[in-house]
Design goal:
The protein is mainly β. Helices cover about 10% and strands about 50% of the residues. It is elongated and about 215 Å long.
Length: about 425
């Protein structure tokens, strides 16, 4: 019988791996190691800086007018608003509100010597912790920096409606009569008027109101951005019944006579008519109003005077004007003055010669203003003939007449004479 060989034995014995034993061996140390690793991981995660992002702010930020405008200047123009991009963590950006953002212009970069519009940088501040401005759009705004100027302008009362039925408005009066308007030079230059607007009520009573004056341009549109000094004026408007007034002409009361040789060419008066109020019976007797007497004695030139108006009726008064400006225009009279005998003189006669004239005199009529004619003295009117270059003989020559300045020779008789020259 064959012999069965015995199985070969391994050179090294096979070892059995006990996973459970491996897992449970030194278990406390392994747990501690895992816990230490987790603590380090948590600390590293918590200590790492948060991630920043850039986000567009959802709204627009209005550009605020700066408080620190250089003295003597004013900032003109609409500043508008800007958009901003913000940088920060998601958590910080979520806390940003509209009140945390403030935009303003950087006036330090502006040129104060320019009155035309110029671009000025915009600065935006953020009050939220951990948030910064990344960019601004637009980065500049157009502004105009102008010097502040002022001017005095008369205040005009303007009625917003008609007075009550059966009445009319008398002359309004404002106190003060003018205000000082200040602001940007371009705005002050546009002022055409300053109005104090009043409104009549239903009651028939005089108005006494405190009104804020309003500057307007040539089209009547209000001009914003100006200040008034004072800011309020008082307007007084008489409200008068129509039934107790009468409008009559103004007659200048001229006394005396102008200087001799002058005459009055025209007399003008301003106003030409006035309105008088009072009892009906008293007004019926008034058909004109005279001025106080105006003395024109010896007047030789135009004169303008302001005189009071005189009311003769009792219980009457003027509604508006109480004075009148009267202009009296005078001019010299013109005329003539005869000089029937004017001796004719010979000029330019040569040496050793004598001359005779036929006729030896002429008649002359001088024209001009009467005062000038009256002032002519003897010797101011002359008549001559010229014998220059002429020898012995007879000649018919022209007579040359000279009269004072401002006058003229209206007629000369005769205009030519016979000149006879002989030797001595």
């Amino acid at each position: 019988m064959a012999r069965v060989p015995a199985p070969a034995r391994p050179l090294l014995p096979r070892r059995r791996i006990d996973l459970r034993r491996i897992a449970t061996a030194d278990l406390p140390l392994k747990v501690v190691a895992v816990l230490i690793a987790m603590v380090f991981w948590i600390v590293s995660v918590l200590s790492a800086p948060p991630t920043e992002v850039v986000r567009d702010y959802s709204g627009r930020v209005a550009v605020e007018r700066p408080d620190s405008i250089p003295s003597g200047y004013v900032l003109e123009g609409q500043l508008g608003d800007v958009g901003v991009k913000l940088r920060g963590t998601e958590a910080a950006l979520a806390n940003v509100t509209a009140s945390d953002l403030h935009a303003s212009v950087d006036l330090a970069a502006a040129d104060l010597h320019r009155a035309d519009p110029q671009e000025v940088p915009v600065r935006v501040g953020v009050a939220t912790s951990g948030v910064r401005v990344d960019s601004i759009a637009p980065a500049t705004v157009s502004v105009r920096i102008e010097p502040i100027t002022s001017r005095a302008v008369a205040v005009q009362a303007r009625f917003a409606n008609d007075p009550p039925a059966g009445t009319f408005a008398g002359d309004p009066a404002t106190t003060p009569r003018e205000v000082k308007v200040s602001g940007a030079a371009s705005l002050v230059a546009r002022i055409a008027a300053v109005y104090a607007t009043v409104r009549f009520g239903d009651a028939v009573t005089d108005l006494v109101l405190s009104v804020q004056p309003t500057p307007v341009d040539a089209s009547g549109a209000p001009i914003e951005g100006l200040t008034m000094d004072p800011a309020v004026v008082q307007v007084t408007v008489p409200v008068l019944p129509k039934a107790t007034t009468r409008t009559v002409p103004v007659v200048p009361a001229v006394r005396g006579s102008v200087a001799p040789g002058y005459w009055i060419t025209v007399v003008t008066v301003d106003p030409t008519v006035v309105t008088v109020r009072g009892e009906s019976a008293a007004l019926t007797a008034i058909d004109q109003v005279a001025t106080a007497p105006i003395d024109i004695t010896g007047l030789t030139a135009d004169r303008t005077v302001t005189v009071a108006l005189v009311l003769t009726g009792e219980d009457t008064s003027f509604v508006k004007a109480t004075q009148a400006t009267v202009t009296i225009s005078v001019a010299p009279l013109t005329g003539t003055r005869p000089f029937p005998v004017v001796a004719v003189q010979v000029t330019g006669l040569g040496s050793g010669l004598v001359a005779e004239l036929d006729p030896p005199t002429i008649g002359l009529v001088v024209a001009g203003q009467v005062p000038t004619l009256s002032a002519i003295q003897s010797g101011q009117v002359t008549a001559t003939v010229d014998a220059t270059g002429k020898g012995a003989g007879s000649y018919t020559v022209d007579v040359v007449v000279r009269v004072p300045p401002g006058t003229s020779a209206q007629s000369v008789q005769p205009t030519r004479v016979t000149l006879t020259i002989r030797t001595r």
